[in-house]
Amino acid sequence: MIDRRPFAALGGADHGWLKARHHFSFANYYDPRKMGWGALRVWNDDEIQPQSGFPPHPHADMEIITYVREGAITHKDSLGNTGRTGAGDVQVMSAGSGVRHAEYNLEADKTTLFQIWIEPAARGGQPYWGAKPFPKDDRSGRFTPLASGYAEDKDVALPIRAEARVLGATLKAGEATEYAPDPARHLYLVSAKGSVEVNGVRLDPRDGAAVTGESALSITAIDDAELVLVDAA
After folding, report:
1. Host domain of residue 228
2. What domain count does the chain have?
3. DSSP result, the chain
């Protein structure tokens, strides 16, 4: 099953400094049919204006992955971590037993990003933050783990405490790639840029596709495309 979630139909809010679209119920947007997808709980498509951002606030028991599409985000937290994550790169905050953090766009132009929350395999634990550059050439034509809860990915991906992977790929127009999931898993695919076909289903930029029961995904780029995929329990 591939359930297309058109970008234009997503919930959202415009706070002036923040324009947000929600693939799942979040904050003041509530849809009982979209409370998550397996362990994937949140996928927000955020546009943050210059010199603004999210002031310090707490989290616990959630794996929070930020994929920056344009601009950069600057992170500060109660653990003493500070870092700037730029376009195409990823940061992970494993909230564990509890942490406070702030996320600011300190750039001269807007920042756009995907904010992805995945439920952890177990509650508690020491909070953690990390960031890593992911050159697009390394994921050209194939999916590469960006964040992962699996030991076999530890040398390439940022760690999360969940039975899940966040993967990225870039495709040139006309290029195709394959992904072979466990049909019992819950996959969610978004094209950050460009249109693609997934097993014959067209996704335009920033559309979502909720996938389960599929043993193979064949993805063909209609335009140059940048893809983000979550594969969760």
Report:
1. 2-232
2. 1
3. -EEEE-GGGSEEEE-SSEEEEESS-BTTB--TT-S-BTTEEEEEEEEE-TTEEEEEEEE-S-EEEEEEEESEEEEEETTS-EEEEETT-EEEEE-TT-EEEEEEE-SSS-EEEEEEEE--SSS----EEEEE---GGGGBTS-EEEEESSGGGTTTSEE-SSSEEEEEEEE-TT-EEEE---TTSEEEEEEEES-EEETTEEE-TT-EEEE-S-S-EEEEESSSEEEEEEEE-
